Amino acid sequence: MYGKGLRTLSIATVATLALALSLVFFYAPLDADQGFVQKIFYLHVPLAIVALLGFIVGGVFAILHLRSGDRRWDAYSYVSIHMSVIFGVAVLLTGSIWAKASWGHWWVWDEPTLVSFLIVFLLYATYYPFRYAIEDRDRQARYASVFAVTAGAFVPLNFLAVRLAESLVHPRVFATTNGGLPGSMMLAFLASLAAVALLWVTLVKLELTAKSASGQLKRLRRALDAPAAGGASRVAPEVS
Amino acid sequence: MLPLATPALPLDEAGKYVAAAYVVFMVLLVVYVAIMAAKLQRIERELRDLAAFAEARAAADQATPGREEVDAR
Predict the structure, then answer these.
(1) What pLDDT is recorded for position B3?
(2) What is the ipTM of this complex?
(3) CB–CB of A98 and B21 under 8 A?
(4) Contact B8 A36 (CB under 8 A)
(5) Cα–Cα distance, A86 to A148 (Å, whole number)
(6) Residue A169 burial (C-beta neighbours within 10 Å; 0-12, 13-18, 19+)
(7) Measured between beta carbons, which residues in chain A are less than 8 angstroms from residue B26?
(8) Which domains does chain A have, with CATH numbers?
(9) What pTM does this model have?
(10) Contact B9 A104 (CB under 8 A)
(11) Which residue of B13, B18, B41 to mutate against A (max A Cβ within 10 Å)?
């Protein structure tokens, strides 16, 4: 069920990634201030945006799970958060490399954007131990959904707080005053954003397909082996 | 502004950082895909085992006539 359209989506993702990389390296001009190092921006910022949006999407799925009690939404929420945590690792790594190249330091603790992203990332890193500490599958799903909603609401608040804070270090490239991105750079950025967003959707779909296959396999094994006795499981949510 | 105050790195110096960032991303992606491939291989193996088990059971049922009726009761 989840595998439907995965091939088309994968092809679209690869094509968009190829287009985005071509635009980044062969079309977008070099930045006057940072030079070639600014090319990291086209990878780092889309990854950060998609990761943060993914956390919010996980929260929305969690609300749907709490409202309906349908375990499918819990699986969607879990996979969305899981994928965003992986993207978060990429954000932190690419950000550190960019910081080293631009500022001469791998990490700057007095920069609100960096530290706030780290806080969000660490918050979601606690999702896994929190989830798997609960044995009962229904309670596990319910509590994980409450966590996802609470943490998901924290993401935009955190983003707003950082935007409101006075920052002299992190560049604001989407500012409407004092410049902002020129058209060619914006085009390359939007292509990169689309490619990274498509990659996120594709990987979420792939993960859901694998989980669905694994869940159905377990059901089949239970049916063949012995009558199902129920019981708790520590595995990730099953998708049928 | 620190980025503005810092002069742009020369291309040969900047190139390794840009390459590092994109390579790190690609490595993460490849590792994730490799983990997913291993997971799918395990599912396939388990499915093969289950199919063999189901076939063996069906063969055993055929070898002992009347077993289905006993099981049904």
Answers:
(1) 46
(2) 0.82
(3) yes
(4) yes
(5) 16
(6) middle
(7) none
(8) 6-170+180-209 (1.20.120)
(9) 0.83
(10) no
(11) B18
